[in-house]
Design a protein that fits this description.
Layout (H helix, E strand, L loop, with lengths): L1 H36 L4 H8 L2 H34 L5 H7 L2 H4 L2 H12 L4 H8 L8 H11 L2 H13 L2 H9 L4 H29 L3 H4 L12 H10 L3 H30 L2
C-alpha cells in the first residue's frame, strides 16, 4: 500500500512539475503578449496593426517566408532523397551537417551570409557587375531564411523514405511503370506528409527570424524591413503596445500553422 501511495505521489509530483514548467515557460508569456497588445483597448491595437509601416513589414515577411519555404521544399526533398537512397563517401558527415543551422547562433549565420555574398565578396562583386545586389536587399533575406529553416523538410522526408515499403516500388517497376511514374504515383504520396509538415514548420520559423536577417536585410522601411526587426525597433522606441500588436499577428499565424502541422501528422499516423 505504501509503495502504491508513493508511486502515485511521485507521478503526481512529476506531472505537476512538468505542467508548472510548461505554464511558466510558454503559457504565461503568450498570455502576456496578448494582454499587452490590448492594454489600451481595441482601437489602439487596430491602429498599431494597420499602421502602413507595420502592415508592409508583415506582408513582406509573409511573402519572403513563403518563398523560403518553397525553396526548402525543392532543395530539402532532393537532399533528403539523396541522403537516404545513395551511398557515397562523406554521406554521414553531410547528414550531420544538416542540423548545423539548429546549433549555430543565427547571428553567426547572418555574418556568414554577409561575408559570402556582401559587396566585398566574389559572389557579391559578380552580382554587382550583372546589375543587381544581394546583401541589404530581398535576396539576402531569403537566403538567411532558407539557411535557418534548412533542416525541416529534410528531416521530415527522411523517416518517410526509410519507412517506405520497397516492395510497392518494385511492384510498380514489374508492372512496367517508368521511374518517373513510379516516383510520382508511389513514392511521392508517401513523402508528401513530411514535405508539407516540413514546409509549414519552415514557414513558421522564417516568420520569426531575427538574428540572421537583421545583419543582411538593410532594414529599409517599406522595402527590406521585416516584422521581427520592426518589433525590435518598436521596443527600442518604447512602444511596447505596438510591438505586441504585431507580435500577436505573427503568433496567431504560427498557432494556425502548428495546428495544420499536427493535423497533417495525425492523418499520417491514422492512415
Amino acid at each position: 500500500m505504501n509503495i502504491i501511495l508513493r508511486n502515485r505521489l511521485w507521478s503526481f509530483g512529476f506531472r505537476s512539475t512538468i505542467m508548472l514548467y510548461f505554464i511558466l515557460l510558454i503559457v504565461l508569456p503568450i498570455i502576456g503578449i496578448y494582454s499587452q497588445s490590448f492594454t489600451l483597448g481595441w482601437t489602439p491595437f487596430w491602429e498599431s496593426v494597420t499602421d502602413p509601416l507595420a502592415w508592409k513589414a508583415v506582408l513582406l515577411t509573409v511573402k519572403l517566408s513563403v518563398i523560403a519555404a518553397l525553396v526548402n521544399v525543392v532543395l530539402g526533398t532532393m537532399i533528403g532523397w539523396v541522403l537516404i537512397r545513395y551511398r557515397f563517401p562523406g554521406r554521414r558527415l553531410l547528414n550531420s551537417l544538416v542540423d548545423l543551422p539548429f546549433a549555430l547562433p543565427t547571428a553567426v549565420g547572418g555574418l556568414m551570409i554577409l561575408l559570402l555574398l556582401g559587396p566585398n565578396s566574389f559572389a557579391g562583386g559578380l552580382a554587382e557587375k550583372l546589375g543587381f545586389e544581394i546583401v541589404f536587399h530581398e535576396p539576402a533575406i531569403i537566403v538567411a531564411m532558407v539557411f535557418v529553416t534548412f533542416p525541416f523538410v529534410i528531416r521530415g522526408v527522411q523517416p518517410l523514405l526509410e519507412e517506405l515499403d520497397k516492395s510497392e516500388e518494385e511492384a510498380s517497376y514489374t508492372l512496367g511503370a517508368s521511374k518517373a511514374r513510379t516516383f510520382f504515383q508511389v513514392i511521392f504520396p508517401s513523402m508528401l506528409p513530411g514535405i508539407l509538415s516540413g514546409a509549414m514548420l519552415a514557414f513558421s520559423r522564417a516568420l520569426a527570424e531575427f538574428g540572421a536577417v537583421v545583419l543582411v536585410a538593410g532594414n529599409i522601411p517599406g522595402k527590406t524591413l521585416i516584422a521581427s526587426v520592426y518589433i525590435f525597433g518598436e521596443i527600442e522606441s518604447d512602444n511596447a503596445q505596438g510591438a505586441a500588436a504585431v507580435s500577436v499577428l505573427l503568433l496567431t499565424l504560427s498557432f494556425l500553422i502548428l495546428w495544420a502541422v499536427n493535423l497533417v501528422q495525425s492523418r499520417r499516423h491514422g492512415k
